Amino acid sequence: MRSAKDFFAPLAVGAPTPLREIPTRPSRAIHFFDPSNPKMAAKVPDMVGSVDVLLGNLEDAVKADNKLAARQGLVEVARGTEGLGGPDSPTQLWTRVNALDSPWGLDDLTTLVTEIGDRLDVVMVPKVQGAEDIHYVDRLLAQLEAKAGLDRPILVHAILETARGMVNVEEICGASPRMQGLSLGPADLAADRRMKTTRVGGGHPGYLVRQDPLSSSPEDVARERATHQQDLWHYTIARMVDACAMHGIFPYYGPFGDIADVVACEDQFRNAFLLGCVGTWSLHPKQIAIAHRVFSPAPEDVAHARRVVEAMGDGTGAVMLDGKMEDDASLKQCLVMVELAEQLSA
Ligand code: GLV
Ligand code: MG
How many C-beta atoms lie closer than 10 Å to residue 198's C-beta? Predict the structure, then answer.
């Protein structure tokens, strides 16, 4: 089977931006746990190997009184859990530190890099406003890594959850070679934009389009005027995906707070997957399976993509397959699908 490189090297014009030299380990589900909660922390060892990423959350959802316990709890979890974090571990270890303007952000970074920097794969930074926030974290990480004698750089992931962050999304993506990816933070972003919602991610029944009436009879008008709920996050996700693709880093959806509504959760995740995201957050164990399923390409789509790759031969010209025209552009889409399937099965 040819790989994307075979095609993109000679056909460089219009080829997708290659991913930067960042480890392309699967991260379909980033499962959040609160390290200050002993019950949650105790479950972590059993989850290693069954989820792509475990993230010790120190920021929102951890009470102010528990911030130090959460930080210390994460150090203990990382030290005491075999196979969690570090090169070639089956489950990556990430953390979400407190915001850079909070009383805890600096100490979070200092303690974690010093104590468990060899296990920590990615630091998620909330409420990033612009490149300056990433520059600050980048410099600090460099100092702390040097002091701790670490030989593997810790990567940085930014949450897009302020209007200013959204406007600066491109400079944020390109602010450091440590940038691993971006997540959408729909709850904080909604508040910052003064959207009229009260939820953590997902849709809203009031955000809809209504079909024009086809008839002038009042009865028919009422029956015919079907409504369709729209995706509140379409623009934002697409904007984030473009910025990430331009800089060769990974885009993610974010939290879906209605844990009971697994159908709407799956729909939201799938929309993000189809638009280009590689993964999402999981706030409850039942969202892990949904994320792993949605962010893995369907076997029938992969089989079709492989047929197109074979049918396209040297990659030039056009062929007809099942009555549909395939060419260089559909080949490139199929290679994205095949590469993702290969990465996930590696
Ligand atoms: C996540 O942090 C959010 O604000 O949605
Ligand atoms: Mg937030």
Answer: 9
164 marked as part of a ligand binding site: no
> Which residue(s) pair with 254 in the sheet?
none
**Cα–Cα distance for residue pair 178/171, rounded to 1 Å:** 13
Q: Whose CA is nearest to atom 1 of ligand 1?
A: 185
Residue 82 structure tokens: 């075999």
- Decide whether any atom of ligand 1 lies within 6 Å of the 159 Cβ: yes
Summarize pLDDT for 199-236 with one digit per residue, the tens.
Answer: 999 999 999 998 887 777 777 766 667 889 999 999 99
- Which residue type sits at 307? R
Taken in order 71, 74, 75, 76, is the CA torsion positive or negative?
A: positive
Residues 6+ apart with CB under 8 A from 110: 140, 144
CA 45 to CA 277: how far, in whole Å? 28
Is 32 in a helix, a strand, or coil? strand
Q: CA-CA-CA-CA torsion for 286, 288, 289, 295, nearest 10 degrees? A: 140
Residue among 161, 237, 281 to mutate when testing ligand 1 (max atoms within 8 A of CB)? 161
What token pair was written down for 55? 């993230």
What ipTM is given for this predicted complex? 0.99
CA distance 344 to 155: 20
pLDDT at residue 12, rounded to an integer: 39
What confidence tens digit (pLDDT) does each residue in 56-79 have? 999 999 999 999 999 999 999 999
User: Residue 46 class from Cβ within 10 Å (0-12 exposed, 13-18 middle, 19+ buried)?
Assistant: exposed
Q: Tell me the pTM.
A: 0.92
